[in-house]
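Researcher: We're teaching a course module on how sequence relates to structure. For the next exercise, students receive a sequence and then see the predicted structure as tokens, so they can try to spot secondary structure elements on their own. Here is the exercise chain.
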Amino acid sequence: MKYEQAVQVLKENGMQKMAEIYGESCAAENLKRYEDLAEGYKNYFADESFEFFSAPGRTEISGNHTDHNSGKILAGSIHLDTIAAAGKNNSDQIRMISATYHQDMTISLDDLERTNATSGTGPLLKGILDGFKKRGHKIGGFNVYTTTNVIGAAGVSSSASFEMLICTIVNYLFNDGTLDISEYAQIGKYAENNFWNKQSGLLDQMACAAGGIVTIDFKDQANPVLEKLAFDFDELGHDLVIVNTGKGHADLSEEYSSVPIEMKKVAQYFGKEVLRECTLDEVIDNMTEVRKFAGDRAALRAIHFLTEDDRVDVAVKAIKEKDYASFLNVITESGNSSWKYLQNCYPAGEHKEQPVTVALALTEVYLKRLGRGVCRVHGGGFAGVIMALVPHADTDGYVSYMEKHMGKENVYKMRIRNAGAIRVEF
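Model: And here is the predicted structure for the students to work with:
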């Protein structure tokens, strides 16, 4: 559609569509975002046709650092998202404007080779396009004007949100919408692994693309099994609160990569490729040899993985049976295992700077005094954010408490969003 048509569509159907995607309380502010998006596209690309696209960030509930070793996860899409106006430009170039990050870049489809750069939007965009080509899908030139409110470098998957947005655009514009979200995730993983040198799994991409609360089994990495769960934190009578600790994780690829590498080192001792192929009893019974072969931290991380997989099963069962006391308890157990065994609350050697562990400690003190609520490190860890599930009646008090310690604008009450990575149809 052209700009004038977009303005009319937003005027007639915008509030209804925004309420469907973001909830009634956030409809007006998001309608303004889409109006600005259309205006921005027109300013850069004149009166060329475009469509609207959206992909959310994600929250990780349980299954911390398990996907890359073929484990299980429990996660959900959040109401913060990356949105775009995009349309074909009938050329061999992608022109991308990021209003949020003040970027204006052009990428040629004839130059998708990897460079020395291992961070930033450019290499990631190249990697996604190359991933489409490598998997036999079509690509073409397009213009895209984008903006995001997903917290950057903070553990709610701003990068995967962007990846799934671009995958949705390319799928719709050039592949007739034939790709599924598993294919999106594989392409996003390929881009991160090969163009960012980040040994990520598939959790972030699939959780962003799917929408709602999902559990995913990555036993078969090529064909993950996803199940949507009819669940929302309102059923618990709790709010999901994300606390940004103020230190981003953009330069921590080595820390993240060490987790799958060390887990796979333990699996290697048993002649296996990934820890999913091992058992907890095997690791415990051979602990002395495992420690010599892979190191103590690797052994502890293996214990985390093999117990965390079981905790995902417990959490999913509790949700289905509406046993919310057990659900909250297993989230606490998962967080404690990440802190003690996985050891992803701060980078190795950074004992003087531990914002994640400070935020967790402050939250634990607060929730213990309340006698209710749970918390855990969120996402990849080492820096970034923590999550807390706080009873509705206590949320405002907790938010004020954490704003005092972590700063205003760093504490977010999140909502689960049912729509995943989509073309926004009015």
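Model: If you want an answer key for the exercise: The two ends are 11 Å apart (CA to CA). The mean pLDDT is 95.
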